[in-house]
Amino acid sequence: MAEPVVIWGAGAIGGTIGAFLRRAGHEVLFVDVVPEHVAAIREGRLHIEGPVADFMTGGPAVLPQDVRGRHRLVILAVKAHHTEAATRALAPHLAEDGAVVSCQNGLNELTIAEIVGRERTIGAFVNFYADYLAPGHLAYAKRGAVVVGELDGARTPRLEALHALLREFDEDAVLSGNVFGYLWGKAGYGAILKASALTNDTIADFIAAPERQLLIRRLVQEILAVAAAEGVTPLGFDGFDPIAFLRRDEAAIAACMQRMETFNRGSAKPRSGIWRDLAIRKRQTDVAAQLAPVRAAARRHGLATPIADALVRLIGEIERGERAIGPEAADALARVAAQH
Ligand SMILES: NC(=O)C1=CN([C@@H]2O[C@H](COP(=O)(O)OP(=O)(O)OC[C@H]3O[C@@H](n4cnc5c(N)ncnc54)[C@H](OP(=O)(O)O)[C@@H]3O)[C@@H](O)[C@H]2O)C=CC1
Ligand SMILES: CC(C)(CO)C(=O)C(=O)O
């Protein structure tokens, strides 16, 4: 039997990628902590629905404690605040010559590499839109960028093989020599998503709102200044142009905002996963965990991140029920942005 691709965290992102790989005929082992979801996948009731694809599949699926043996390819797709625990749990099941691929938001590769080693970590960046609706039931709402790259930018046989595999999920998947450029680009774009989750606005409406323009610019610029200090050239995707923000080129920023609004307008997933965690699933988000390495890098370079700091505080207040989602929360962040 061929070696399985292990999907560790089989929710919206991992479950959707795994379903496509199964449909393409690959061996896949799904691993997740939600017993009902694991059972549904094992019973062939993994349903991908939405405008991009609609099909039913399934396959071997287990809880983390039931994983056996050692595997050469693990796609990690848990939220950032679960990365460390998930990586520690998968580490004994990772082959000496195996690799973990982070299909996540944030700079999770840094955490993964600390646990399993840099040579057993491959970078990835995903910007497609998906939701976990119920056990076995995932919505694939919108295609978006999919990128893989070695952490040192090398083009290796294992990276080429991974790229070929992910092209079975999305034929436009990119093999990049600068995966951290994409991840820092998403950190900039993702900051807008995080701020939009303070409100019930759709992503498109938030991007288009006149009263959010200054906040968006200052927030993205604050994050990308850290990328620049790290010596990373952030890369654009799906309409986002980080260089426009870094250069403070107002015409290019306006054009970028227009493209991002168009990209998000009418999406079957109109709001971020963070908003969904806060408003629908009523659970902790990964905002603090995603921003932790960005804020840590800023401190290393002597940079302040007052807007990101306030964003983490405001999201935490919503998580703890101390503040409601709504325009007032974004107004509070905008006031911080206006001071910097
Ligand atoms: N959804 C989207 O459209 C996009 C998401 N991303 C990023 O992709 C990553 C995955 O997000 P998403 O798929 O949306 O999240 P989901 O919550 O839908 O899926 C993650 C799954 O992993 C499970 N899980 C949590 N801890 C573990 C663990 N230790 N071992 C195994 N499974 C675990 C979760 O269970 P439980 O729910 O109980 O925690 C959940 O079923 C995140 O970093 C996210 O920011 C990036 C781009 C788009
Ligand atoms: C909005 C989306 C799907 C892509 O940018 C995302 O990353 C999220 O929901 O966290």
TrEMBL record:
Pathway(s) of this molecule: Cofactor biosynthesis; (R)-pantothenate biosynthesis; (R)-pantoate from 3-methyl-2-oxobutanoate: step 2/2
Keyword NADP listed? The answer is yes
Q: Where is the Ketopantoate reductase N-terminal domain?
A: 5-152
Q: What is its EC number?
A: 1.1.1.169
Give UniProt keywords alphabetically.
Answer: NADP, Oxidoreductase, Pantothenate biosynthesis
Q: Which reaction does it catalyse?
A: (R)-pantoate + NADP(+) = 2-dehydropantoate + NADPH + H(+)
One record GO biological process = pantothenate biosynthetic process
Drop me one GO molecular function for this one: NADP binding
Looking at the record, the residues that make up the Ketopantoate reductase C-terminal domain are 189-319
> According to the UniProt entry, where is the signal peptide?
none
Q: Which GO terms describe its cellular component?
A: cytoplasm
* Alphabetized SUPFAM superfamilies for the sequence: 6-phosphogluconate dehydrogenase C-terminal domain-like, NAD(P)-binding Rossmann-fold domains
Report the family membership.
Belongs to the ketopantoate reductase family.
Q: What name has this protein been given in UniProt?
A: 2-dehydropantoate 2-reductase
What species does this protein belong to?
Answer: Teichococcus aestuarii
